[in-house]
């Protein structure tokens, strides 16, 4: 409330100071005698410094205020001060006339060589009257200066109030159905009429200056140049760029993206050049006033935005050349939406021109609010019309048996956002929040410009990089021949450059959204009020600046989007073109994601203004929590980072740990997922993979070993059996030739001869299947050769005639 108390103090000071001046204004219409009496009552030597002090106080208050209500009160006080200063100056005029008359009676001082002498009393009287006249002139000049300063300050306050309307979204200016909103159209204030008339006269004078003899020919040339550029320049420039794209660029997607960008660029360039010609036609003379020159410069800047709106719309729809159309839009929908881009550009241009005209003419706030309300109304209605017409055309296509275009989720979300914003604009106008409606309408237009430009430029960058490094094109062949590199590396370079280009475009788009032409600080003010309402002053201990909260949130959203886009690009575009194995790719992607999220969070907190020296209590609480309950989580987190950096195991490895054998499918921050042979998954904490013995069967491209141990009777031919086993292993397609299969003599027992045959396979995962095939072949071959495996020895112990007898069943047979 300190600002309110300061305002009250200034107001009271002004009232105390200006009360005598109000009385002076009431008496200024009386006779000269009454004016003289008033001059005695009001001492200009005392009142003028007070007025100057009040004017300085008002200037200080204006520099610190941005509220519409307070600025309005300060403006009224400034106008009152200007009136009182003028009244005081007029009240001093009779005294000046009286002194001038008295000096005329005394006459001028005699010359020294004239021989005329006057009395000392006359000389003293003349000197006294001359000093009084000089003092009175200074006081009148000071009153005029205060009046002029007050009028200039009032103009500045009006401009500040007009700018405040763009930021104070919570200001209710009256519903569009109310008489107050439409009052400027039917009952314009007298001061607005005079200001608008004066500025129109300035425009007429500017036009007259440009048409004076000696300047008429140049003006005609500039006007003709602007008309030619606007009427024929776009068509021929577009045809020339189309010829360049078709005949000079290689076949492929690059042509389509180049032609779409050419359509947008030619529309923008011709519109800006045409308005620049018009500006030069009328404002090239030095006698043109600054207000008219500023107005013309605003129109040229406005033509850039309108050119972008119209150009991007034509590039997206491409109704004349459907094959050039970048987005997936059916031809009936494109034809239905064709009028909306130029209509939106025209609406923005007309009403932004009216707003610029009001600024240049210093029109009242009510007139500005009226123009803003009409702008928001028409833009909101246009947004709803775009959504409803496109849906109606798609439904008609379905009814006629045609198939509309397949829309992605992102396109559906964009259309839903346009519809909701259009409804919000109309709703806010109905309830009276004209400033909020204007903000939403212009932000909708600006977001469309930013994202439309990003879409076309990103397509152009990706297609350009792919075409530049493609070996099917001359440029790619020359690069490959010059550097003598494999085609795979050219694909990597194309993916890398396109990724860098898209990242740069994302950053530019984010900065454009944050610092756009139609953006304002109003959302930040709303966040400030919400934080003050819910958080009180508790956040002051952390030194968080509420004005940075929205920027921090936008940074967080953009950072997460960039990380996910980079992750998808690495996973699907860049890393598959490298020689890295799948495990190394997944490890790099996971490590990059973890580091990226940490950096994004730190950057978000930094933008928010969070000071780490104020978080000692949080660090202390975390220390206690880690000591008691979070140590396992921290240990697993650190172990996960070690696994991702040292890579003792990686995604795709076949590992065995604590009786569990399976393939590693994912290494998370806390735990690792191991998939078993039955497709079930075991979650193993990362710390166990670091602290326990782990068998990595596939590390270092390890080969699998298929070993089969068989026992044969003692009467077999060992050489024959050995050769049979080697033949079976050699004929199996899974067994590697190097190292060669081998048969080793393992043991000789009374039950038979034990032989072990060993062969290598490519990977440990083939061991089980290879052993199964080998056993089938070995048993089939042994039976065919009449060779039997050794039967296990069994003994039967019986009691006969009171004694134990051991009998071998084989002998009995």
From TrEMBL:
Pfam families named among the record's database cross-references: DUF3772 (PF12607), MS_channel_2nd (PF00924), MS_channel_3rd (PF21082)
Superkingdom, taxonomy of origin: Bacteria
Membrane-spanning parts: 215-237, 258-278, 298-317, 329-349, 369-388, 409-433, 445-469, 489-514, 544-563, 584-609
All copies of domain DUF3772, residue ranges: 140-202
Protein location: Cell membrane
Family affiliation: Belongs to the MscS (TC 1.A.23) family.
Its membrane topology: Multi-pass membrane protein
Main location: membrane
Keywords, ordered alphabetically: Cell membrane, Coiled coil, Membrane, Signal, Transmembrane, Transmembrane helix
Organism: Izhakiella australiensis
GO cellular component: plasma membrane
Gene Ontology molecular function: mechanosensitive monoatomic ion channel activity
Coiled coil location: 119-153
Keyword Repressor among UniProt keywords: no
Signal sequence residues: 1-25
Mechanosensitive ion channel MscS domain residues: 633-698
Residue ranges of every copy of the Mechanosensitive ion channel MscS C-terminal domain listed in the record: 707-788
Listed name of the protein: Mechanosensitive ion channel protein
